[in-house]
Amino acid sequence: MKPDTSTAVQPRRQRAAQDPLWLRVLLTSMALAIVGILIFLPILHVFVHAFSEGPFSYFEHLFGDSANRDAILTTLSVAPRAVILNLVFGVSAAWLIARFRFPGRTLLLTMVDLPFAISPVVVGLALVLLYGNQGLLGPRLSSAGITVLFNTPALVLATTFVTLPFIVRELIPLMESVGPDEELAALSLGASGWQMFWLVTLPGLRLGLLYGIILCSARAVGEFGAVYVVSGRIAGRGQTIPLRVEQLFQQYQSPADFALASILTGIALASLFARRLLESASGPRKIPSATTSGDAA
Amino acid sequence: MSSRVPLPGFALSLGYTLTFMSLIVFLPLAAIAWKSADLSWEQFVQTVSHPRALAAMRLTFSTALIAAAINIVLGLIVAWVLVRYEFPFKRWVDALIDLPFALPTAVAGLVYASLYMNDGWIGRFIVPMGIEIAYTPAAIVMVLVFTGFPFVVRAVQPVLEEIDTDLEEASAILGATRWQTFWMVLWPNLRPAVVTGFALALARGLGEYGSVIFVSSNLPGKTEVAPTLIVARIEENKFAEATALALVLLLSSFALLGLINVWEKWSRRHEA
Amino acid sequence: MSITVQNVSKSFGSFKALDRVSIEVPSGCLVALLGPSGSGKTTLLRVIAGLESADEGMVRYREEEVTETPVQHRQVGFVFQHYALFRHMTVFENIAFGLRVRRWANDKVHQRVRELLHLIRLEGLDQRYPSQLSGGQRQRVALARALASEPRVLLLDEPFGALDAKVRLELRQWLRRLHDQIHLTSIFVTHDQEDAFAVSDKVVVMRQGKIEQVGAPVEVFEHPANAFVMDFLGHVNVFKGHLRDGRPVLTGYLPHGVANNFSTPGVVFVRPHELEIRHEQPEEGALPAKVDHLHPSGSAIRIHLRSPCGESSCCVELGVDAYQNRPLAVGTSVWVAPRRGRVFEPEYSI
Hints:
The complex is a heterotrimer of chains A (297), B (272) and C (350).
Chain A: H1 9-16, H2 21-50, H3 55-64, H4 66-99, H5 105-112, H6 114-117, H7 120-131, H8 138-143, H9 152-163, H10 165-178, H11 181-188, H12 193-204, H13 206-222, H14 225-230, H15 241-250, H16 254-282
Chain B: H1 10-38, H2 41-49, H3 51-84, H4 90-96, H5 99-102, H6 105-116, H7 123-126, H8 137-162, H9 165-173, H10 178-207, H11 212-215, H12 226-235, H13 239-267
Helix pairs in contact in B: 1-13, 2-13, 3-8, 3-10, 3-12, 6-8, 8-10, 9-10, 10-13, 12-13
Chain C: E1 3-12, E2 15-25, E3 30-34, H1 41-49, E4 56-61, E5 64-65, E6 76-79, H2 91-100, H3 106-119, H4 135-148, E7 153-157, H5 165-182, E8 185-190, H6 193-199, E9 202-207, E10 210-215, H7 217-222, H8 227-232, E11 237-244, E12 247-253, E13 267-270, E14 275-278, E15 287-297, E16 300-306, E17 313-319, H9 320-325, E18 333-338
Helix pairs in contact in C: 2-3, 2-4, 3-4
């Protein structure tokens, strides 16, 4: 278990005093420039261009255009489903991995991180190979009247695959650091398994769940590559917001494009700041261990 | 063994977890395995050695490598400043570092494309200077630097925070200059984290698609990355070829992940 | 309600935590499981509770065999080492938990919780959260929570472990008084001999998964069954020597570091308060020594002495009054003679 990494301000000032002033100024300006150009500039860019024609035009682009509206609605119907699926999975897998030791546990843990290692395009390909007309399951499903590809189910499956690890990875370190004592205490007091789960386990995970859901949602909303491959890519049918952004880009429809992009950016920023708030409520976050700090899109 | 533990729910959670993962992850991957079994060795080699495929692979690997390397430098500087120095709004800056994790790649692509175009905020300064970035491999590198940026920073930060200042003070007392202290005392501790961050950024860069298609002209053989080529093949219904290329990407990322794991274990061998 | 443990063994991987342990805890008794870390005392407690399952052997509550009964149904009260209070519930809800899951009526719950709050003297604090309580307060809430649903037995894992000295003392007295009030069969685990002696009716000394001795505190201290028990409970000096006519005769010092090897034959164990200082050489059975260091210890003075060659040391404890009669200076040469001593059968290690 890594120790709490919150160092008091005092010691830091002393350490900083070891670097000469000119070096501190130089490095700090470089760092600020890096973050400014790399990250801050793009955010600014999005919002400036989104509102470049004024606020009325902004909302007009978002809700006036039917294709844009549809994209928003599709995203709103796909992302939450993926998040809910991964929420139930996340709790189940975290319980299993954090509380029990069994052969294959490490393997399972690695498998859970798999979606981070796979290019979303490959995810899309896999789904096409599975559910397409010449695919593994496709023909059987379509004769039963179920179409997966080019429809919402495919979008949900793709998004669920790609965002699978997020909630689990938040819950496992949390459960491991809290330990099973409270749950054992509940059992010793006569609670049944489900009573223990609802009354003790879940409430203890509140912050981790919230944070995981926020991360998962932000990622689900923004998924591009996998969804691109499995969707119909025709305006109004199976287009999520990111796909529509790309389409508008091809069509050089700049302000509408940035209007949609601003929604996505807003969600991303909200998730970042929600994380900050949660952190100050619960103390510094344990940084997830190396193999899995991110994702490909 | 585990069923004798008083905690309930082992069988239930095991069953549900495995079922869910099979449906969502293993089954689709099995489809890839199934399709690749279809491929003969000759077909595979033919697809992969096609000039267009080779160009795409070359571009993918080179841009990802360069971007990850750049991120080592940028990441170290930013991590150092965040951990060691104080300045106003530091907490906000720290929060922003994660933006590339949270921001959809399509938005990243959109923004980077428009920034560097002729009349973009940056383009309008550098194009007259003769520096063309938009639609060139340089643009791909730029956007991969963006998407991979947090990896090195977040990998290095906790290590920097935990380094005992006593080490540095001991080094200084023994007469080392600041640079010597950094190189001989701090760097060996940071190196594993930097390598991990590098590998993660690299793995991400190899698979990056959403942002790249915005900033690149996507010309086959010139500015087309491997994921783009795969999508093209899918759209042409040439699934066998798409699978072959996907296998190359898959194997590279698995190999990278495996290397990261081994590297982590190996570099932890000195820890208590 | 009495507890019987018969031939219980438990291993974790290749580590044998309990090796055919058997013990009887009479109804209403307060028993301490005492031993160094790794002795198996916590494992034994958890097996009795049902938090671990034994590989072999049997656990009975009175006549009922509970070896296979899951912990929820054993009606035990268990107090965890770090209390395991439910962080997100108030003190009231924590204590009420065992009642709520048993679906007690609301007014009965309130009544019972109020009783317990009064018992543990935390009446005004029932709406606080665990994070707002001190260590000693949390300890008491954990106890109240365990007692709420009237368990058959109370089990405590290192209950005084995480507390500072003064709180520890208070809590020890409080626990003893509580036990005298409610006469619930109780077992607690500790590695601290003081805790065990101050609180319990019977002490069970354990080492490496086995029970070394069971008895009342005075008994195990005055009549230890073997060298380990004598050494573990309080300080002890170890010399070369033997018993003649029941009286200890010292023949020499042991080389440093050998003292704790219990399998050495020809060794006498002498408590510091049973070793005397003489200023003239007595008849026989005494050893020369030089005064090295003195320090007060409670109501006594501890005198550390070294052997003439300087390689071994021993310790004498004298009452303050006795010391004032003839104070000693560092460096003085004296003789040490045992008033009483113990010799044990050497333990043969395989």
